[in-house]
Amino acid sequence: QAKNGGRNRYSFFERQMDEALRLRKVVEDDLRAAILADELQLHYQPQYKANGEEIVGVEALVRWPHPQHGWISPQQFIAIAEERGLIIPLGEWVLRKACEDAKRWPGLRIAVNVSPIQFRQRDFVSSVMNIIEEADIDPTRVELEVTEGVVMDDADAAEEAMMELRARGVRLALDDFGTGYSSLIYLRRFAFDKIKIDRSFLESMETTGESAILVHSVVHLGRALGLTVTAEGVETSEQHRFLQALGCHELQGYLFSKPVPAHEIDKMLGIAPDESRSGAVA
Ligand code: C2E
Ligand code: MG
Ligand code: MG
Ligand code: MG
Questions:
Q1: Is the ipTM value over 0.90, yes or no?
Q2: Does the CB atom of residue 78 touch ligand 1 within 6 A?
Q3: Quick check: CB of 144 below 6 Å from ligand 1?
Q4: What is 2-59 written as a DSSP string?
Q5: Which residues does the UniProt record annotate as the domain EAL (predicted)?
Q6: What are the CA-CA distances from residue 216 to residues 168, 198, 255 (Å)?
Q7: CA-based, 20 to 30 A from 76: which of 21, 28, 65, 152?
Q8: Contact 250, 229 (CB under 8 A)
Q9: Nearest-CA neighbor of 171 among 151, 147, 142?
Q10: 121 DSSP assignment
Q11: pTM for the complete prediction?
Q12: Which pLDDT does position 189 carry in this prediction?
């Protein structure tokens, strides 16, 4: 009996490993071609003013509908793209596509996630500026979301790139704020416009008083430093009310909207469907 249980546990573990390895292999084999073939898609999650009603921007989030294996999430392929040197073409594709789509949404900010590896490229700033110029959109509408990893390795180079980007009007947001370990130092040194409070803080807010205190402190810290403070992962109206009362500037989360295809953003903004744009008509 014990032997049998042991064997079952082992095969359960094996199945999990098989599944993970199989997915990794799919990503390794197919991601390069998918980028080249324009198979990736962008979904956009609206960002709202604290009242939860007015959309001020959208965050582009990459999606991969694999022809055989269904939707593969960025959590499953961004890290592999980074390992394989594919994050550069992927990142350029994302920024180009997001800037193109953003033209339909005048006045909205377009937030794009950027990997630390992209940021470390010598020509990162000129690559970003070229894409923005080609798309012919105002650089002040573009916001790059970076994590602490950006400044970990080569802080001097990161600082220089960030200053250059800001000098050209591009905005910078520190994503997943609070999950790293030296966030406070980075906030003082680097030229961020915004911090995005990681959703793990909100998740535990209802269960522990300490989390609420932390969120409270972060909002006040950000405000005191003159930064825009955004909360991500807002799922309940209790969280909304709490954050609004604290003076959090912007909100993003399933309570308001999940990430959706571009044509859904059109609808939210009251933009008529464009018949000539493929995929726009449901
Ligand atoms: P992130 O930039 O912190 O994005 C927020 C993630 O939280 C997104 O997951 C979003 O769908 C999810 N989310 C938003 N609101 C809620 C909520 O209320 N509840 C819950 N449970 N989740 C919520 P997603 O799209 O799977 O992306 C995961 C991560 O993958 C992103 O985290 C980002 O780090 C990375 N990523 C996505 N797109 C790109 C990209 O184009 N380039 C790079 N380098 N990374 C990307
Ligand atoms: Mg982000
Ligand atoms: Mg985040
Ligand atoms: Mg993240």
A1: yes
A2: yes
A3: no
A4: HHHHHHHHHHHHHHHHHHHHHHHHHHHHHHHHHHHTT--EEEEEEEEETTS-SEEEEE
A5: 24-273
A6: 33, 13, 20
A7: 152
A8: yes
A9: 142
A10: S
A11: 0.92
A12: 82
- The pLDDT tens digits of the residues spanning 252-277 come to 999 999 999 999 999 999 998 764 45
Cα gap 114→195, rounded to integer Å: 15
C-alpha distances in angstroms, 115 versus 34, 107, 118, 201? 19, 26, 5, 22
Q: 172, 150 in Cβ contact below 8 A? A: no
Break the chain down into helix, strand, coil percent, rounded to 5. Answer: 50, 20, 30
Rounded Cα gap, residues 97 and 106, in angstroms? 15
Whether ligand 1 lies within 6 angstroms of the CB of 115 is answered as yes
State how far the Cα of 46 lies from the Cα of 26, in Å rounded to an integer.
Answer: 31
Q: Ligand 3 center to residue 175 CA distance, Å?
A: 5
Count of beta carbons in the 10 Å neighbourhood of residue 27: 23
Closest C-alpha to ligand 1, atom 45: 113
Residue type, 5: G
Burial (CB < 10 A; 0-12, 13-18, 19+), residue 13, is exposed
Q: Which residue has the higher pLDDT, 52 or 281?
A: 52
From first CA to last CA, the distance across the chain in angstroms is 56
Q: What's the pLDDT tens digit per position in 181-206?
A: 666 777 878 889 999 999 998 888 77
